[in-house]
Amino acid sequence: MSVDKTATEVERAYDDKHDVINDKYAHEETLNQMKQEATHANVDEKKLLLKTDLHVVPILFLLFLCAFIDRINIGNARIQGLEKDLKMKGVDYNIALFTFFILYILLEVPSNIILKKMRPSIFLSSIMLCWGIVTIGQGCTQSFGGLVGCRVIIGALEAGFFPGSVYLISMFYKRHELQWRINLFFSASIIAGAFSGLLAYAIAHMDGVAGYGGWRWIFIIEGLATVVIAAASYFLVPDWPETAKFYTEEERAFWIRRLALDNEDTSMSHWDKKTARRVFGDIKIYLGTAMYMGIVTTGYSGSFFTPTILKQLGWTSIRAQVMSIPIFIVATVLALSAALLSDRIKHRFGFIIFGCCVATTGYAILLNMHHVAVGVRYFAVFLIVGGGYIAQPITLVWLNNNLGGHYKRGVGAAMQVGIGNIGGIIASNIFLQSEAPTYPTGFGTALGMIWLCVISACLFLVYLMYENKARDQGKRDWRYEEPEHERKNMGDDYPSFRFTY
């Protein structure tokens, strides 16, 4: 096969090859032929990998940074007078937090199905532009009801961004190249915690400008930045590998072959009733969702309540904003280090358990905070946030690594993030003002959710080991005898697919 064939010709050649795959031996022969074609391609793989990295990860990192700042800046606004000016009382703040997640959860799966049929550059930039405008509206609202309305709309618009971005990134990389890239992308949400505190510290000094309180300027300025960046992102966000403009035709053909080799025969290119059963009947997706729900509760608790928790240590609002910054910087370093090591040794499970154990230690300290000094309590917050962010992005990639096919990856990512974000609703309602500063309900519930993650990860591992053993013993080889259109739409149910731990 000539290396200068277009991507369409390459895909057609794959389809022709799949037509003759009637058993596992023919399948292995086809893969060997594809490997030889990739080997003889006149493309520098390392340079092309770097080129892909530069065009895919940085822009999505920047967009996610904006998205997460717009999601969590309510925590910074709170200690700058939000509740007082909008006459909020009791659990009003908790209500404002969890209403964000109502449409956010419900629209995750539909959004990823829409994304599959659209150019990511159009879809992602459009929803971002809209939520930036609504974020500005948060700074202008004059009532608690207005604030809640804005939060609901932002949640609906952001629903398609995170799972869509994870899905898009996963389509460009091999399975054991993915963790590092996802963590680089995901680290935007961690850095957002530090950056949000830094911005809030600076913007808080605008209190009184044009008659607006400092908390209003936090929403207005950060929303304006999102609008500007969203407009520019239309020209920068990549589309699918088959259509991404930064590849030459030769590079595109090589890259598609490379990805096909890594995923073997895991295509899932059309949606029908059997596809739906393969997706919605896959226990891996539900265990992955439980893992994510357990750990994301800690992620949101840290983002929403760290400024409040630190203020309860006896610090001023301004100092609490500043002291939150090192926590998220350390968490970023830990998350990226775990990602690099995880990809290098091609292992996920152990890192999830380690991160959960680190966070557990932090919660244990804060549940006994009256027996330790303020400095130790501050260190405990480092453990909680750092441990949570070691594990959280790895749960996303571990599930993605073990799903095959366009539709299964897209819907699986959306279900994991969408349903899993029930953890955000939980986090929004467990830190009760009446329990300050000890927050036993908050810390105790979050600790319990950490161990939901641990138990789910263990069950996920056992299932993967069981399935790999069954396939090694030939117990799934009967699937080679399925009709051709079924074989070409099995995704990770294809007998040659092996799960990764």
TrEMBL record:
Domain of life: Eukaryota
Positions of transmembrane segments: 56-74, 94-115, 122-138, 144-170, 182-203, 215-237, 283-302, 322-342, 349-366, 378-399, 411-431, 443-466
Pfam families per UniProt: MFS_1
SUPFAM superfamilies, per the entry: MFS general substrate transporter
Domain Major facilitator superfamily (MFS) profile residue range list: 56-469
Annotated Gene Ontology cellular component terms: membrane
Cross-referenced InterPro entries: MFS (IPR011701), MFS_dom (IPR020846), MFS_trans_sf (IPR036259)
Broad class of where this protein is predominantly found: membrane
Subcellular location: Membrane
Mode of membrane association: Multi-pass membrane protein
Keyword check for Transmembrane helix: yes
UniProt cross-references to PROSITE patterns, sorted A to Z: MFS
GO molecular function, one term: transmembrane transporter activity
Keywords on record: Membrane, Transmembrane, Transmembrane helix, Transport
Record flagged with keyword Transmembrane: yes
Protein known as: Putative transporter
Species, as recorded: Cyphellophora attinorum
